Amino acid sequence: MERPSLEINLPDTHEEGKLYVVDSLNNLNKLNVCPDGSQHALDVEENTGDTEENTSGSNIRNQCLFFITFILTLIISLALVSFVIFLIIQTRNKMDQISSRLISEKKNIEELKKMNNMILKHLNQSGIK
Fold it and tell me: Across the chain, which distance is largest between two alpha carbons, in Å?
């Protein structure tokens, strides 16, 4: 007695794709033909049917979620970079103001030193001790 072999013949992925397309077209045709009352029966059939459609739907949802997250990240990054550039410009303006004040104060200090030296010379010449 020969035992039958337990070979599992997996369908070719190309044929599987054709079946998926035909199944999708059939579902679309059912949606167009069926009235609203029988729509619930189709939904139940689809939910218990191929998991391939569910995974493709979640895959598309994941791609959309990734795309939205990516766009939000870019917008937030752009806002942060703009804020940093604004702070750099403000800091440069403040530094320019401070340096101009320091230069004017330096001139005032030099004038005060000159006046102090003149007063000391005058006091030394007049002989007041």
Answer: 142
Is it the case that residue 55 has pLDDT exceeding 60? yes
Q: Is the dihedral of CA 38, 39, 44, 45 positive or negative?
A: positive
Decide if 46 contacts 27 (C-beta within 8 A).
yes
33: closest CA among 44, 42, 22? 42
Q: How many Cα atoms occupy the beta-carbon half-sphere of 91 within 13 Å?
A: 6
Which letter does DSSP use for residue 34 in this model? S
| CB 82 within 8 Å of CB 70 | no
- Between the CA atoms of 83, 86, 92 and 95, what dihedral angle is there, to the nearest 10 degrees? -70
Give me the DSSP letters along 54-89.
Answer: HHHHHHHHHHHHHHHHHHHHHHHHHHHHHHHHHHHH
Q: What is the pLDDT of residues 73-129, one digit of tens each?
A: 999 999 999 999 999 999 999 999 999 999 999 999 999 999 999 999 998 888 765
What is the rounded distance in angstroms from the CA atom of residue 106 to the CA atom of residue 123? 26
